[in-house]
Amino acid sequence: MRNFLLVSTIIALFISTATFARASDTNALIQARVPFAAGDYLAAVDEARAQGSADSLTLATQITCYYSRYLAPEENRLALYESAVEMASATLELEPNNAFVRVRNAHALGQYSQEIGVLEAIGDGLADKVRDQIDAALALEPDNSAAHVLLANWHAAIIDNSGFVGRMVYGAEEEEVFAHYAETLKNTPSDVVVRVEYAQAAQ
Known about the structure:
Elements: H1 2-16, H2 19-22, H3 26-37, H4 41-51, H5 54-70, H6 74-94, H7 99-116, H8 118-123, H9 126-140, H10 145-170, H11 174-187, H12 192-202
Helix pairs in contact: 1-5, 3-4, 4-5, 5-6, 5-7, 6-7, 7-9, 7-10, 9-10, 10-11, 10-12
């Protein structure tokens, strides 16, 4: 029980400091926030997804990713990540020039890549797709903290899983991991989410 409460707190931290703060669709917030606050994350996803707006689909995507990462049974994770990628893609069609939408696409693709295995993901061209979404987000918002975190994690994942080949083919560099985290902390020094991600990456 204590572990569930801790994980729920982590999920609430990630979601509330990002998507809920940005969403402009009031109805989506109201419909999804009630089950979300009760810890019924999949019901919150269903409520948000049913709205069909860019904000609500972004919300559904993010909840799905963090639920899958922290709480979902292992046998359900792949299908959940596939659903997140699908919702993220639909959101992108609605708002291609929205940096936050691009970030959520990169995050969903990244989580899916980790689930199937980074080497397989690289072979399927997902590393390039994730990087394209991150670069698009930073082109729209150069100081976007979430995009810098994702880019740091992108470099780390490539290096950890493909070493020298990843460095040569993708230009992944260890220095870039810490440089992008430093950039994020400079822009948002009080962001607890960034510090959590940084701590995980430094392990």
